[in-house]
Sequence to fold (311 residues):
Amino acid sequence: MQVVIIGAGMAGLAAGTRLKRAGHNVRLFDKGRGAGGRMASRRIDTTLGEAVFDHGAQYFKAREEAFAECVSGWQRDGLVAPWAAAGPAAFVGTPSMNAPLRAMAASLDVTWGARVDAISRDERGWRVTGEGVDADACDSVIVALPAEQAVALLSPVDQHFADLAAAGMSAPCWTVMLAFDAPVAYAADILADPVEPIGWAARNSAKPGRTGPEAWVVQASPAWSTQHLEDSPAAVVATLQLALAHAVGGALPSVISATAHRWRYALPAAASREFLWDGSRQIGICGDWLAGPRVDAAWLSGHRLAGAIIG
Fold:
């Protein structure tokens, strides 16, 4: 079959990988500049060298057998490594969080910088249109986007799927990336028992395969991020930097880089379904807003949707 997948995050790439291995012709379109999505990493030049930050997903766990087998392959290829600080069976991409996605995307036909505006169906099959999209009619279409973005595409073609997406809206997350000229005086690499406004904080430079100066990722809680969604990046940096100083119990070293990133669609409300598939019309939906707000859930959603299509 000719299959078009809209979205090349973890779910879309997992679906595409399995479909390609089964012999189908697969094309993926993503509006981003490259692989990463919410497993993105950012590199920032500082006076002490390049600082690396995983400013989206911080780690993932291999809970299910199918995903564990996939992670084992990534580990053999040097794409992931265990991160003991996050607990047993916790992994991070190496040398950055998006390494597994970059490898998956490299083996697939992905068009980056392509914004899909609409999908429609006629006697020849599904059509996908938008800026930078050059797809012919295809047999099947998969929407592998955050729920908020999926609603607009699905409403004209499948109201039931669109309604499910509308109920799966995500909470936002402000993330601050801080690089220092010396180590932060805190015994652990993950902040224990964070309190408002911090939801998570960790010494990113201590993850396996990382180089460069002392680097911390500080993520605000969903409640605080929602309340301060339209604050300026500078104000967010100031607030979370001060909160980190209080949390570690002392003054921070000199800051050599400070950046904020706003994730509007960070933590989806899971719909308790692994995927959606209408075999009669050949349209499928996958993503972590269906299966749960985790990397492994996103992979399983795409992988098992592909299995349903193959079946």
